[in-house]
Amino acid sequence: MTFPPIxxxxxxxxxxxxxxxxxxxxxxSIQDIFNFFQEVNSMAQFDTLMKMDPQLMTQLLAREYVLExxxxxxxxxxxxxxxxxxxxxxxxxxxxxxxxxxxVTPESAMMWYKRSMDATLELLGPNLMHEMLEKFxxxxxRQIEIHTFIKAKASLAEKLFRNGYFETAIGHFEELLExxxxxxxxxxxxxxxxxxxxxxxxxxxxxxxRFRGDWAASWFFCKALLQYKLDGSTRRSRRSxxxxxxxxxxxxxxxxxxxxxPVSKVPQKxxxxxVGSKEEAVDCVKCIASAFCDDANVMTWMWEELKAxx
Length: 310
Fold this sequence. Notes:
By secondary structure, the protein is mainly α. It has a domain at 200-310. The chain is built from 17 helices and no strands.
């Protein structure tokens, strides 16, 4: 698509606006943004954008409240800052995202995640949103305009998953995987469990084939469960479960309640677990437990196979 000169200028300034908002959230304050643009001699662009978009300062001030909320140690004070942000800018995706994380109920969190996504769409417009998503497929995470949208969508999908809304979660997980085929968000394990919960074995088998090199413990146990769902307790399914046991024997111990799971002291974002470790098992169980524990026959099968090893 080609743009006439005036439209091209407007488009450049619009991209500049999103850069400002993104840098504000990353740097930590409006003052840091001003200092940055003075250093790179970009204040002229900022002034031009201010003339074209009188709401820019309001948007920046709203995000200052979001930053204050992140610094707060108490939930109530943080929530008040976020409410002030939305009073200034009702379409502030970052404020909605933070309110989701502070929500008491899953339903409230899901509502705020959805509102954050809608706010991004309102901010960008459908055409630019579609363009950004298409670019994201080719070069993930370079499109700062939709970072919050992707985070909100992934968080919404996981929240749906954690609360048993597997069919709805599947739609979001599939869209995220389409946007990010390399899956650096590692959502495929949640999608796999969702497929198994909904007995969508054909989809589960296709997903396994697509990521057949995956070495995660959850992947081994999901493959065993899929084989059991397809064949029952056969030599093939038992061998698959045996390979999962070899991958991490703590997983069935925790799933069957033979030992209490330890509280992981490793930050959630750091998942470089030692192979076969308790920490890895805890992370695995948190993902796959619903698919196994909701089926008494599966749990009995696992127990019998575990006893055979003793």
